[in-house]
Amino acid sequence: MPASGQSRFGRRRLARSLAVAATGVAVVALPLFGATGAAAATTTSTTASATAYPDNLDGWIRESLDVMAQHGIPGSYESIHRNIMRESSGNPAAINLWDSNAAKGTPSKGLLQVIDPTFQAYHVPGTAFDPFDPVANITAACNYAADRYGSIDNVFGAY
């Protein structure tokens, strides 16, 4: 963990939360003719609410489920958790350097052990383009599982 006390993924999550929180829109309209100055301005302001997720396995799964819901990708907390525990024991930095994928030069990476070509093909917009990012890894893997098996809920072994 860096000296700042925040994990590598915590900084990204904070940046993601700040980006969402900073999407409020302010519109100022001044008439072209007639009244002038601040008294004539109409101001409308809206603020987006940001959901804070803990920087741990529970938070990563919950954030992934929210992203998946926005993109129509099926899956349940229980199935995602079950598959993560089998594939990486919850370690987002896990990398498999010994299986057939690794022997071909494309090791499986991250929480759900996704290889780079699969991650690239099934990456979900709005997540980091990094297979070691927990939320990006989960959502890409669940997107792949939905395409191949109907849902991550139908995956009970290596996939």
UniProtKB/TrEMBL annotation:
Residues forming the Transglycosylase SLT domain are 84-156
SUPFAM superfamilies reported in the protein's UniProt record: Lysozyme-like (SSF53955)
Q: Which UniProt keywords apply?
A: Signal
**Which superkingdom is the protein from?**
Bacteria
Pfam families registered for this protein in UniProt: SLT
Signal peptide per UniProt: 1-40
The UniProt entry, under InterPro entries, shows: Lysozyme-like_dom_sf, TAT_signal, Transglycosylase_SLT_dom_1
PROSITE patterns recorded: TAT
Q: Could you confirm whether the keyword Signal appears in this record?
A: yes
Keyword Signal attached:
yes
What is the protein name stated in its UniProt record?
Transglycosylase SLT domain-containing protein
